[in-house]
Amino acid sequence: MRFSSRSGHAAFAILAAAPACASAATITSFSPTLGPIGTHVTITGTAFTGATHVSFAGVTAAYTVKSATQIVATLPGAATGPIAVTTSAGTVTSSANFNVTPGALTAPATMHPAGTVSVTASGMDAFTSMDVYFDTTDVALAVSNGSGVATISVPVPANALPGAHWITFDERSTHKAAQTALTVNTDWLQAAYGPANAGYNPYEGTLDSNSVTTLDTSWAGYDGGYSNATPLVEYQGTIFAGDVNGVVRAYNASTGALNWTANPGGWLAQRTPVVYGTSVYFSNATNIFAYKVNCGAHGATCTPVWTQTLSVSQGGGLSLYKGSLYATGTDGNVYPVNPATGALGTPFYAYNNTSGEIITPVSFSPDGSYAYATSSGILQVAFSSGGRLEASNSYYFSPVAFTGGIGFYETGDGAVHEIGGVGWSATLNGTYCYATPAVAYGEVFAGDCNNVSAFNAADGGLDWVASGLGFVSGIAVANHVVYACADFSVVALDANYGGPQWTGGYCSGAPIVANGSVFSDDGQIYAFTIPALASSSVHRAPSLWQLKPDARLVAVRTPDR
C-alpha cells in the first residue's frame, strides 16, 4: 500500500503478519451424563490445551487436562445444567445438561473423633429442609439453596469407633436422601504421636481401662529380626516401619498382610519416620526417602517419590511441624525439608552448633519452642519467647516432651525434669535407664530401671508408682491407660493410679496406640486388639426407617452460589 508524505516523497509501511488466533474449544460429548457430587466426568472435545476453568451449571469444578481433546473433571455441589470450559479463546458450553442425582460428599473424607467435617449434598430439592444424621443420630437440620445444594459442618462424636461411618441427608417433606461414608481414624503419624513428642493420642477412645484387659495378639510381622527399638507409625489402617537392614515394610494394621516393601538401604531402625498427607518418610545415615503410603499392594516393591541427600550424616530421625519435615545433622544443625519436593531449607540450631551430633528428633511445642539433645550430653532448647537454654549431663538426655510451652525430659543419672515453668526435677530409680516421658491429663509419666511413675506436671509431686516392672524403654498414653515397654513386654496401667491392667507381647521401645489397637516392635511387629472389636462387622449405611428426626434442631441455610 502506498502513502504520500508531506514532503511529497512516497512512503511505504511494512505490515507485520498478524498472530494466529487461538482456536476456539468445542465440547462434543461427556461421560457419564448423570451422577452425584464427586462423579469423575470425562469431557471430550477440541482445543482444551491450557484450559483455565471448568464449571457445572456455573459452579467451579476441579479438573485435569488430559490432552487437547480430553478433560476429566469432578462434579462439584451443583444443580443440573451445562458444562462449561474456558480457554484463552473464550468459554464453550455443552449443548446438553449434566444431570445431577442425589448424593453427598465429605471434606475431608477421613477425620478423628471430636473433629468436624464439611458435608455437601446435591441433587436435592430447592429450598428444602433436610435432617443430617451421623450414623443414626440426627445432628443438624440443613436447608438447601435454589440449586438443591446443602453444605453443613458435621461434628464427629468423641466416642466414634474407628472405621466407616455414614452421613445421611433426608428431606423432611419427600424423604429424598443422599448418603456418604466417612472414615474415622485415630492415627499415630510420627514418633511419640506428634511434634510435641508427648506420647499421647488424645483421640483414641476404643481402648480404656476396662476393655484393655481383653487385648490379645492378632498378628505378628517380620521387621528385621533384631531386638532394636524400631519406631512405628500408623496411618489409615497401615503400619509402617524401617529395620536395621535398610528395608521399609507397610503392613495392613488389621490383618498383618504385607502391603508393600522398599529397599532404601542403610540403618533405618531408631531413626523416626513420619507420615504426612499421602506420603511416608524414612531416613538413613545420609538420605531421606519419600514413599506414597499406598504405593503398592500384595507385597509389591516400591520406589521413592523423591530422595534427598544431606551434606552431613543424620542423627535422631525426622519430625514434622506445621507442614515441614525436620532432619537432624551430625554438624549440630537442624535441616528443614519440603515434604512435597525434598528441597532443603536453611539449617538452624537452638543454642549453638558446636555441641556434637544431634541424636534425638526435634521436639516442637505448639507455641513454637523446640528442643533436642546432642551426642556430647547437651540439651538445647529455643523458646518461642526468644529465650535459649543449654544444659549438660554426663548421663545423656531423652528427647523432650512438650505440653503447651512446658517441656519434660529424663536424664540417665536417674531423674525427670521440667523446663519452661518452675523448673522442677524428681528422682527416678537407677542410672542409664531413661526414655521419653509421656505427658497427659496434667501428669508426667516417666519410666526408669524398675518403675513407671506419675508426677504432677505443675510441681513434680509424685502421684503414684507402678514398681517391679523392670527396665522401661518407652511409654505411650491413650484414653487414661499408660502403655509401657517394660522388661521387653508391653504393660498396660491405669493412668489414674498405676494399677496393672494387662501384659502381653514383646517390645524394645515405646508402643503406639491407634484405631483401637496397640502395636509394638522387637524385631517383629506385634498387633494387639480386642477380639470382639476385631471380629465386628463393617459399619453399613443405615436405612431411612432407622432414622428419627430431632424436632429441636435449628435450621442452617445454604446460600446460593
Task: Summarize the model shown.
The protein has 561 residues and is mainly beta.
Structural description of this entry:
The protein has 561 residues and is an all-beta fold. The chain folds into three domains: 26-100, Immunoglobulins (Immunoglobulin-like, Sandwich), CATH 2.60.40; 103-184 and 539-557, Macroglobulin (MG2) domain (Immunoglobulin-like); 200-529, 7 Propeller (Methylamine Dehydrogenase, Chain H). It has one helix and 53 strands. The strands form 13 sheets. The protein has a six-stranded mixed β-sheet with strand order 13-19-18-15-16-53, with no helix packed on it. Strands 4-11-10-6-7 form a five-stranded mixed β-sheet, with no helix packed on it. The two termini are 54 Å apart. 45% of the residues are buried.
State the low-pLDDT regions, or none.
1-20
Order of strands, main sheet, comes to: 13-19-18-15-16-53
CATH superfamily grouping of the largest domain: YVTN repeat-like/Quinoprotein amine dehydrogenase
Query: Which class best fits the helix and strand makeup?
Result: mainly beta
CATH class of the largest domain: Mainly Beta
Helix content: under 10%
What's the gyration radius in Å? 29 Å
Biggest sheet record: 6 strands, mixed
| Proper CATH architecture of the largest domain | 7 Propeller
Q: What overall geometry do the principal axes of the alpha carbons give? A: globular
Count of structural domains: 3
Number of helices: 1
Quote the distance from N terminus to C terminus: 54 Å
